[in-house]
Amino acid sequence: MERSPGAVLTSSPEEEEKAADGHGEEAVEQEEEAAPVVLKKGPWTTAEDVMLVDHVQRHGEGNWNAVQRLTGLLRCGKSCRLRWTNHLRPNLKKGSFSPDEEILIAQLHAQLGNKWARMAAHLPGRTDNEIKNYWNTRAKRRQRAGLPVYPPEVQLQLALAKRCRYDDFTTPLASAQLPGAANVQALDATSAGYTSSRPAPLDLARQLAATGQTVQFLSPPPFSAPSSPWAKPFARNAQYFQFAHSSPVSPSTPTGPLHRVTPDLSLGYGLRSTDQSRLATLSPSLGRPRVELPSNQFGQAMPPTSAAAAGLGGAALPDHQHQNAASLEKMLQELHDAIKVDPPALAPANGDAAERHAGGGGAVLERNGGRENKLDGQHRDDDMGTLFDMMIPTLNAPETVPLPPAAAAPNHSGSTSQYSSDDQDPSTADLGVDLPAAGGASPPDQDWGLDGVCQWRSMSRIC
DNA sequence: AAACAGACCAACCGCAACTAT
DNA sequence: GATAGTTGCGGTTGGTCTGTT
């Protein structure tokens, strides 16, 4: 919602408006002879907007410092540029963020940190300022409320990514075996050319794909979700699996279509197909082996074996799928051990998974007593949520994953923007946010505050 | 109805990177 | 290579709106 540009609040709005209105290029010359121009600050007037738009139409974007000189607009170049990019340029999308956009922002923030401009590149029609404002207000509000900053689905990504760093995925993954050339390209892009001393990007999509699940790019569906994604139950979540740190995003990443990596994560708990089409994932570099690290995330060193496995390439081995499936199964087993239930059977590494997925059937857990039941997809969603509930405290247990101070206690200022983009790890800081202290009680309102699906409450059982 | 607090948003500022000279 | 100018980015501020007391 944009405020009326006519709301001039400067000290002498009338005079300034007059000045702005009356100037053509001839009037400028007069000013140049006069005393130094006092540039205006504050809200833009309609007349100023018109002048700026006219200037851009004539001269194109750029050379912003010339705007004042050429048009007499009493604004500095920076202000002109800002006004243009944030409000006047065509194809800007105004209004509140759609649920899909919200989810995407959370994903992007999990991956990039406070790289608003880069995030904006993934949200056509949105500006960095808009995203920044959105995130800061929501994040602050959630932090104040003692809620995790990221929605569960993003936390799951981070949790799994973090977890997997400590798993011994010793086998190079066979991207060449992935179905679909685009997939291979995209997934390879997450690792090829990764020359930093930082840990190699972890890409669970790849791992999942190696288990035989399909990984595919979907066309960008319109942002049309009817309700806030953060209000949704957990389940669709396991959808996006380009993980933090896994897909370098460069400023030159096309700002148009959003590319999605959507593994069919039917590892016994399944996802609804309708969910799958909705979730955006972080755009890979579309095959370019560009090396540009995200500003943060996963600063911790990955064990060498994991680093090697996590995407530095390598020849495909015939048994990759089984090995990785076993790793994932092991992970699930551990998670289920924590909650004293049996893990769901890992889906076979072939079409069977998709079949189960489509049918909504399959053995899933019933939390009560660990009995297995045939439940519908929703219940499987819940089970996945339970898994996640268990995952977070496990992952953040001090003996396994030391949390940076920011993770242990939210920033005193309540801001999410204070970490150094290179030094801090929002995947840990924010992932772990607001976890109840060991032995402590969960915050009273630990759900996402929107649909009452509170999986976090169960944490007290294991903390 | 008034006061207050929080949310929201536009815009500014400082800094860094980039480019031209 | 040094310098100046330009552009882009992220953090912050301050005004307005809206809901609550």
UniProtKB/TrEMBL annotation:
Gene3D superfamilies: Homeodomain-like (1.10.10.60). Transmembrane segments: none annotated. Residues 1-35, 346-383, 396-450 are annotated as: Disordered. Residues 368-383 have a biased composition (Basic and acidic residues). Signal peptide: none annotated. Residues 39-88, 89-143 form the HTH myb-type domain. The keyword Ribosomal protein does not apply. Pfam families: Myb_DNA-binding (PF00249). It is found in: Nucleus. One of its GO terms (molecular function) is catalytic activity. It comes from the Eukaryota. One of its GO terms (cellular component) is nucleus. Keywords: Activator, Developmental protein, Differentiation, DNA-binding, Flowering, Nucleus, Repeat, Transcription, Transcription regulation. GO terms for biological process: cell differentiation; flower development; pollen development; regulation of lignin biosynthetic process. Residues 39-88, 89-139 form the Myb-like domain. Residues 412-421 have a biased composition (Polar residues). PANTHER family: OS03G0578900 PROTEIN, TRANSCRIPTION FACTOR MYB33-RELATED. This is Transcription factor GAMYB. It comes from Panicum miliaceum.
